[in-house]
Amino acid sequence: MIDSLPLQLSENRLRHAAIEFFESDEGLKYIRDIHLTLFQTWTCQVMGLTNKDIRAQVKNRVRATPELVARYRRATREAQIIQAQVVMANTMVLYQGESSPALVVVASGPGAYEAMTVAGPALAEAHFGVPSNMQQEQLAEMIEDETYTFGKRRRLPSWLVGDVEAYAADLWVPGAAAHEDGLRSNILPCFAEPGLNGLTFAIPAQLVNEARVKRVAVPPPVPR
After folding, report:
1. Among residues 29, 1, 4, 13, which one has the least CA distance to residue 208?
2. pLDDT tens, 10-24?
3. Which of 164, 174, 165 is nearest to 198 (CA)?
4. Domain for residue 123, yes or no?
5. Distance CA 111, CA 171 (A)
6. Which residues constitute the domain of residue 161?
7. pLDDT tens digits, residue range 75-114?
8. Which one, of 129, 123, 125, lies nearest residue 106 by Cα?
9. 66-78 vs 11-22: helix crossing angle, rounded to 10
10. Is 32 within a domain?
11. Domain total for the chain?
12. Which of 6, 39, 115, 165 is the most buried (most CB within 10 A)?
């Protein structure tokens, strides 16, 4: 059972570390893990002449253009840091920490965390269980297509999240955002832009670990 408790993070420390990281060569490598390089794009196009699944890679993962790299870097300065709820993930990242896709719930604004903690389990139950009412059927239909597509978001209904702007979002999780033995929590710190076409990307685990707030032990009161 993976932990679902909220992470205690210093957002200021995390944002500054992320800005520095994504301006570096390591950050560029991280972005290219999510997307395709120019060489990979060409390879997929050639091999895709006879294999439609490989051809779909170009459309679904998108090439890491300079404009897209700039968007990631801008988001580290402007986008909200959230603790996205993992609904389901490919077994490669879930258990082995290898780059692969996941479905997460993202939200922004007041009540965002509460909305995500409600919507995550509701979507998982609707997908993996047998829908018992129209609302669960609506959720199951919303996420039944498990094909990863970069940038894909589905707006969650108000009966589930109220007035909060919340989405079920496709997310490519680089191995560096997990651990060697996979995801240790159903909480995944991410940068998330608002809106249906907003960018979502997981924050490297090393940066998250360094931004954790250390809990200081409080000594017991002196007996009188």
Report:
1. 13
2. 899 999 999 999 999
3. 165
4. yes
5. 22
6. 11-210
7. 999 999 999 999 998 888 888 878 889 999 999 888 999 9
8. 123
9. 160
10. yes
11. 1
12. 115
